[in-house]
Amino acid sequence: MTRILLVDDQALVRAGFETILTSEPGFEVVGQARDGAEGVRLAAELRPDVICMDVQMPGMDGLAATRAITATSAHPAVLMLTTFDREDFLFEALSAGASGFLLKTAEPEHLIDAVHALARGDALLSPEVTRRVIERFAATPAAPPADATDGAGAREASAPPALAQLTERERETLLLLARGRSNAEIAKELFVGEATVKTHVSNVLLKLGIRDRIHAVIWAYEHGVVAPRG
């Protein structure tokens, strides 16, 4: 059973989300909060698996609440939801530790899919904002591009030191994560089981000191591990 906490200042929105989510077998809405402060308190009391968090709320907003929640050692996955298609909300949400970002204009099945993804330990961005995330974080990678005449040697020389901690399989997993592959797709490409992929992903996050999959993608682009496609 996936335990879900709803945090939104509008009662009708919370009721609508509850109706959508409880229609899915295996989902249980264990609590509702009217603002960020109440959301932080209920997150500690109820220990949900996934929190559906509104961005703009009176008092403590969703971004501040997410920072407080993700600062704990064993925090739930946070799915940020907003009516406003604003890049500042998106990138602040990622910085705060959210594992997913979805516009409230999305179809009900997208909300269900998002909660499923976060409950599995995956990260999710709605299709509307995925391109902007890639463009923002892929535009200026920190690592300089390798000279075409130097090939692999130059790429190795410019690689961030943290990559040396990863095994070859873990590096391959990181590359595939950065290209948006799911665990099942990674397993298929590497000819291994999904349980093995989950182990590789966990090792990558631990060794690089990264919060979750979506931040692994950002890290890979920021450090030039993956080059943006023209």
Structure commentary:
The protein has 230 residues and is an alpha/beta fold. Helices cover 51% and strands 13% of the residues. The chain contains eleven helices and six strands. A six-stranded parallel sheet has the order 2-1-3-4-5-6, with helices on both faces. Strand 5, helix 5 and strand 6 form a beta-alpha-beta unit.
Which structural class do you get from the secondary structure elements?
alpha/beta
Helical content, roughly? 40-55%
Biggest sheet character: 6 strands, parallel
The best one-word shape is: globular
Please report the distance between the alpha carbons of the first and last residues: 43 Å
Please state the CA-atom Rg, rounded to the nearest Å: 18 Å
- Side by side, the strands of the main sheet go 2-1-3-4-5-6
Itemize the secondary structure elements and their pairings.
Layout (H helix, E strand, L loop, with lengths): L1 E6 L3 H12 L4 E7 L2 H11 L3 E5 L7 H9 L6 E6 L4 H10 L3 E4 L4 H12 L4 E2 L1 H12 L13 H7 L9 H11 L4 H8 L3 H15 L4 H10 L8
Helix pairs in contact: 2-3, 3-4, 6-11, 8-10, 8-11, 9-10
Characteristic key phrases:
11 helices, alpha/beta, 6-stranded parallel β-sheet, globular, 230 residues
Describe what is shown at a glance.
This protein is of the alpha/beta class and 230 residues long. Helices cover 51% and strands 13% of the residues. It contains eleven helices and six strands.
